[in-house]
Amino acid sequence: MLPTLDEEKGLADVYSRIPFDELQALGFDARVVVVDGGSTDGTLDVAKKLGCEIIEQWGEGKGAGIRQAFQLFKEKNDDVLVMLDSDGTYFPEEMTRLVTSIPDSGIVIGDRLRGNLHKDAMTSTNWVGNHLLTWLAVSLHGTPINDLCSGYWAFSKNAINRLKLNSMRFEIEAEMYTSCAYQNIPLRHIPISYSKRVGEAKLGSIKDGTSIARKLIIRRIFPTPHED
Ligand SMILES: Nc1nc2c(ncn2[C@@H]2O[C@H](COP(=O)(O)OP(=O)(O)O)[C@@H](O)[C@H]2O)c(=O)[nH]1
Ligand SMILES: [Mg+2]
Predict the structure, then answer these.
(1) Is pLDDT of 227 > 70?
(2) Distance in Å, CA 83 to ligand 1 centroid
(3) Domains by residue range for the chain, with CATH
(4) Which atom of ligand 1 is least distant from the CA of 85?
(5) Which ligand is closest to the CA of 150, given by its number?
(6) H helices present in the chain, as ranges
(7) Does the pLDDT value for residue 67 go beyond 90?
């Protein structure tokens, strides 16, 4: 699953690096679903040309898009879902390693902070913010996690069925983590590579960092969201 918002530059590159043959050899018949948040550049044309399935999400925000993609996943009979940004920061080549590391009924998260973090991949503000938010998450919720805001996750079907989420924007990863903590979903992290994005960042460090911290605190008080 590739979330997109104006990622015409990154999408084709990310798609072309997905290791379809290696996944096939592992027994996976992979397909690519693009969940788009209302791109106004050529993202949807690129996605169509590549033959991706496209979800044009209702509402705005990465969280809303991901929740909609999860809903669709639940209606199909697929076994595993992998999510990564379409901006060229994560390495699709590392997908087989993620998929084969998913704990039983659990989730694996790609860990950039103890992985191969390329020079210039992350601004110093974001580096500090990522460490602070990860520390806050563990302090509040206890369950170990190395890189709260990573965008490279691989989920078993059972884990997706158990996640309880209502995030609209970039708090979605933090809420997936808190849901793992409260629904007892097994979580594992493996080191991954992370490089500089192509195109414009959509996340605002201070504004979205604050929303992520707020979400972590809210979920300490109200561990699960109301079903919507
Ligand atoms: N579906 C959807 N995707 C989004 C939206 N906003 C951002 N994205 C995508 O989510 C991913 C993460 O956004 P990005 O700007 O890279 O944030 P960062 O990686 O946390 O700095 C990228 O692939 C974006 O294109 C949205 O509103 N809807
Ligand atoms: Mg990104």
Answers:
(1) no
(2) 11
(3) 2-221 (3.90.550.10)
(4) 23
(5) 1
(6) 8-16, 20-25, 43-50, 62-75, 95-99, 124-141, 157-162, 172-183, 205-221
(7) yes
